[in-house]
């Protein structure tokens, strides 16, 4: 991958559900509710806007913009997650500013993620 375009850390709804389960298992205090998962777009891509050390820096607090079902505007949501989970999140790069068709997704280690039709 070349470095044209800004890297933006993202999560899918499926990945977000996995992270939420692990965070609940670890008894972190910022979790997502069942209502959130009923309202979130199941095929949504959610953009990380802030990440900071939290809880004596043993995990990270993440703020992101979530794509909701049948809504044009995203909502701001916060979750706590392990540093390992955060470091393995995928990222997106928009090659041409203002043109969403030029967005490409990559794994945390830079491998291109092929688009799917589902």
Descriptive tags:
alpha+beta, 118 residues, 7-stranded antiparallel beta sheet, 3 helices
Structure write-up:
The chain is α+β, with helices and mostly antiparallel strands and 118 residues long. It has one domain (7-111). The chain has 3 helices and 7 strands, in the order E-H-H-E-E-E-H-E-E-E. It has a 7-stranded antiparallel sheet. The protein is globular, with a radius of gyration of 15 Å. The two termini are 25 Å apart.
Q: How many beta strands in the DSSP annotation? A: 7
* Overall domain count: 1
- Strand order across the biggest sheet? 4-3-2-1-5-6-7
Percent of sequence in beta strands: 25-35%
Rg over CA atoms, rounded to whole Å, is: 15 Å
Helix/strand order, N-terminal first: EHHEEEHEEE
In quaternary terms, these chains amount to: single chain
The total of helices stands at: 3
Q: What is the CA–CA distance across the termini?
A: 25 Å
- Helix content bin: 10-25%
- The general outline is globular
As residue ranges, the low-confidence spans are none
Q: How confident overall, as mean pLDDT?
A: 87
- Helix vs. strand class: alpha+beta
For the biggest sheet, the summary is: 7 strands, antiparallel
């Amino acid at each position: 991958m070349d470095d044209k375009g800004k890297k933006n850390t993202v999560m899918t709804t499926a990945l977000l559900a996995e992270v939420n389960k692990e965070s609940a298992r670890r008894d972190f205090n910022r979790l997502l509710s069942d209502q959130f998962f009923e309202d979130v777009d199941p095929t949504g891509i959610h953009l990380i806007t802030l990440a900071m050390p939290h809880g004596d820096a043993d995990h990270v607090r993440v703020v992101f913009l979530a794509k909701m079902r049948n809504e044009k505007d995203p909502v701001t949501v916060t979750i706590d997650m392990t540093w390992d989970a955060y470091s393995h999140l995928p990222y997106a790069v928009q090659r041409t500013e203002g043109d969403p068709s030029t967005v490409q997704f990559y794994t945390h280690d830079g491998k291109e993620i092929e688009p799917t039709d589902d």
